[in-house]
Design a protein that fits this description.
single chain; DNA-binding; 5 helices; two-stranded parallel sheet; mainly alpha; 110 residues
DNA sequence: CCCGTGACTCTAC
DNA sequence: CGTAGAGCCACGG
C-alpha cells in the first residue's frame, strides 16, 4: 500500500500550510518527501474530495492560480484566499522568489 | 510498449 | 510579460 501511504503524506503536508499563507505543488511534494513530484500532488488534489483540506493554499511555483481564470474553481480559490486575507491580483499571489544569479556566481572573478 | 493527458517546474530566448 | 522544450510521474487507450 505504498501508494496510499504517499497519498497521506501529501495530504498531511497540505494540512500543514498555515492559515493565510500559500505554498506550491512542488513545495508540498518536497514537504511530503517527494521532491520533483509536483504533478503527483496535483493528481492527489484533483481526486481528494476532502472539504476540510486547504487546497486553495496551493498555487503554481509562480504564485499563479492553477485553474483557468473565470472557471468556477478559480473563483472559489480566489474567494477562499481572500477570506484568509491573502491578496490576489490577476489570479496571482505575490510571493518573493530567490533572485539567485548563478551565472554571475559561476563567472565571479573570485 | 508507445502515446496522450494533466490543479507542475525550470531554463532559454 | 510570452512561447518552447524538456523533465517529471501516474493512468488509461
Amino acid at each position: 500500500m505504498g501508494k496510499n501511504c504517499i497519498n497521506q503524506e501529501i495530504v498531511a503536508a497540505i494540512r500543514r500550510i498555515p492559515y493565510g499563507t500559500v505554498s506550491s505543488y512542488g513545495e508540498v511534494a518536497a514537504m511530503a518527501g517527494l521532491p520533483g513530484r509536483a504533478r503527483l500532488v496535483a493528481k492527489v488534489l484533483s481526486g481528494s474530495g476532502e472539504a476540510a483540506l486547504p487546497w486553495h493554499r496551493v498555487l503554481r511555483s509562480s504564485g499563479q492560480i492553477a485553474f483557468a481564470p473565470g472557471s468556477a474553481q478559480f473563483d472559489e480559490q480566489v474567494r477562499r484566499l481572500q477570506s484568509e486575507g491573502v491578496e490576489v491580483k490577476r489570479g496571482r499571489v505575490k510571493r518573493d522568489r530567490k533572485p539567485l544569479d548563478l551565472d554571475a556566481l559561476l563567472w565571479a572573478p573570485d
